[in-house]
Amino acid sequence: MKPLIRPSLSALLLALCVACGAALAQTETEPVDAGVESAGRSIEEILPAADDNDPWERFNRPMFRLNSTLDRILLRPSAVVYTRVTPRIVRRGVSNFFDNLREPLTSVNLLLQGRPGRAAGSLGRFLLNSTLGVAGILDPATHAGIPDHDQDFGQTLHRWGWKRSRYVVLPLFGPATVRDGIGKGIASRASPVSWLAEEHGAEYSVLYGLDARARGLSADSFLRGGGDEYLLMREAYLQYRRCQLIDCSDMLPDYLLPDYEFELPDIDALRNR
Predict the structure, then answer these.
(1) Which of 22, 76, 141, 242 has the most C-beta neighbours closer than 10 Å?
(2) How would you write the chain as a 3-class SS string?
(3) In sequence order, what are the residues at sequence separation of 6 or more whose Cβ sits closer than 8 angstroms to the Cβ of residue 61?
(4) What is the C-alpha to C-alpha distance for residues 63 and 146, in angstroms, rounded to an integer?
């Protein structure tokens, strides 16, 4: 059996910039829990302030700088080369392939969350894309109207009652919360990408990381020249993550919409809030 890089350095660092990229992308979210009444209320009234959850800032900032340095000297250059030498259609197929490999874990999480119908739908997406979609390289499930429910173990823990969790910057993994960090650990052990790497070689992990980092290249300007990059990353990650945990799609601020022309927020105002 070939040695496994689990996860690869690229895969571990993907959250560093993908979090910002995801914050600027349109994402399907889960419906509000039964006890949440959102009508007539602002997003600030429903969601807690981000900086209430960052008591470990003295640890998080050095870790953020370390991750940023590793990304600058290794991850981003590798992703740039990958996008330049790989045709777009091939990159799309690679992204589809890895997205499809996430469907079994999504199905498990939906089942653990008490959503058997959606779990069956995710499993159906996986089976359809794995067969008619040529091992997931194509995405006939989307064309067939089967929705993509992106759910992870952190969201499952939230649904089980772990509502608030401290912000932490993980070594190599990047921004997370304690709850979501535990979820990432579970996912890295159970991921089909890890199984592929164990059986067929670590190049699958490396390709997964390259694909993930390449998807975040368009969001790099989010941090560049923005003053306190740590605050920008924290605010972007926590707000986006909270909007994954409950359905706030109707209350998203303009800068989280895909067609918004982004302007950097006032860092002094964030720091003194």
Answers:
(1) 141
(2) CCCCCCCCHHHHHCHHHHHHHHHCCCCCCCCCCCCCCCCCCCHHHHCCCHHHHCCCHHHHHHHHHHHHHHHHHHHHHHHHHHHHHCCHHHHHHHHHHHHHHHHHHHHHHHHHCCCHHHHHHHHHHHHHHHHCCCCCCCCHHHHCCCCCCCCCHHHHHHHCCCCCCCEEEECCCEEEEHHHHHHHHHHHHHCHHHHHHHHHCCHHHHHHHHHHHHHCHHHHHHCCCCCCHHHHHHHHHHHHHHHHHCCCHHHCCHHHCCCCCCCCCCHHHHHHC
(3) 169, 230
(4) 40
Residue 4 lies in a domain: no
Question: How many other β-carbons are positioned within 10 Å of the β-carbon of residue 21?
Answer: 20
Distance CA 95, CA 89 (A): 10
Q: What is the pLDDT of residues 180-231, one digit of tens each?
A: 999 999 988 888 888 887 777 788 888 998 999 999 888 787 766 667 889 9
Does residue 18 sit within a domain? Answer: yes
Distance CA 207, CA 8 (A): 9
How does residue 41 score in pLDDT terms, banded at 50, 70 and 90?
very low
* Count: domains in the chain: 1
125 inside domain: yes
Domain enclosing residue 253, as ranges: 9-28+46-272
Asked if the structure places residue 33 within a domain, the reply is: no
